[in-house]
Structures
1.
Amino acid sequence: MLTDESFLRYQRQVQLPEIGEQGQQALQQARVLIIGAGGLGAPAALYLAAAGVGSLVIADGDRVERSNLQRQIIYRDDNQGESKAQAAVAQVKALNPLIRARAVTARLAKLQLAMEISLADVVLDCTDNFASRHAINQACFEHEKRLISAAAIRWQGQLMSFDFRTRQGPCYHCLFPEAEMPAPQNCSETGVAGPVVGIMGTFQALQAVKAITDSGDLCVRQFRQFDGLSLQWQQFTLPANPQCPVCSKESL
């Protein structure tokens, strides 16, 4: 049962029939791994902490820079020079002392990536490069996890959700094959509107809450693209690639 303190804190979302006390208890028992504590991970971490996700793991090997503050709203000016993961953990604990949060102050890769993903219920890919996204996608598929991935550049945002618990595609590789990856782009070269990144990170948090509480539709076969200039969304059905080296039957 929820404690009186928990009930008062989470009352507004407990009132939602799709969540209720049972859903809130599921949130309190859940472990979410957030890989990347930048513009996407910042709002995602804050909203998941506020929602009462019992255990958050925030992984990022970078330190806070002045140029981050335009969009990475979890940090404050005096956090410059600090570890992003540690500063983010301090903020979510200050927001909600009822949760547990742990910082991983290194870029997750190989065995450490696999270990952290194996311990999570839901994984949020909040990274900013294709190599990391492909590694996270493969590890989530191998460990049969739910993955919520997003990206943002300029005025554009992208959102994808995957449920690999049945070891079925499609997966991120089906959408963006490694051999056909476009030239990498980053915010320092092309720019990005801060609220667009925040929108996508907030949607990642929403999808995670829905996944944990079994509320609504995760739209796991949908690729969604947001245009911040027109406020228009485009939606595409993502088919599984029968030759995908990650999720096809031939690869298993």
2.
Amino acid sequence: MRPHIAVIDDDEKITALLRRSLAFEGYEISTAPDGAEGLRLLSQRQVDLVILDVMMPRMDGWEVCRRLREAGIESPILLLTAKDEVTDRVKGLDLGADDYLVKPFALEELMARVRALLRRRPEKSDENGYFRYEDLLLDVDGRETLRGDRRIELTAKEFDLLHLFMQNPKRVLSRDLIMERIWGYDYSGESNVLEVYVAMLRQKLEEDGEKRLIQTVRGAGYVLKGEN
């Protein structure tokens, strides 16, 4: 399931830019042109992240942030502000915002902030800490993997890679996103390291002739789903 991001900003150019850029990265996007409409949107559906402009007509971002937290909405909030004043940043954080970015901003930095905030979401495991997809089971606490009744021995990196796929079933993960999550921003190893690890992981998961679960999406990345 794709993460859903709400963009609340009265600047049509910024809203259009973020809609295109975030959608290209695979996110589901909803927008609102002001604070009041933003609150209405967020009262009607749950989102995974809110990108919230501070200076807006009818209701500013600080008031929206305050009301969201009072209503018990815990989605991460990234504030966009034209002011780089310490008092303004502190005010936003005190009201419950998780991060802020000063306008004008570099799109690459905003995307990095979005990814960092989405990583803080609770993992979708069952009450026993297991991830399950079809006949594949991942025990995060015990660092164990089962395909049916067969135990699979994985290296630390293979386990982390499979864990990422199990957290995002049926969601296409881009190569850049996987590299950032598993190897970090500054990884400078061989360019085909991801392809090598995916191949090794597939070999172990399919050792007894099981069907393929990690699919290649040409030009986009990889996805955990059964074959059509």
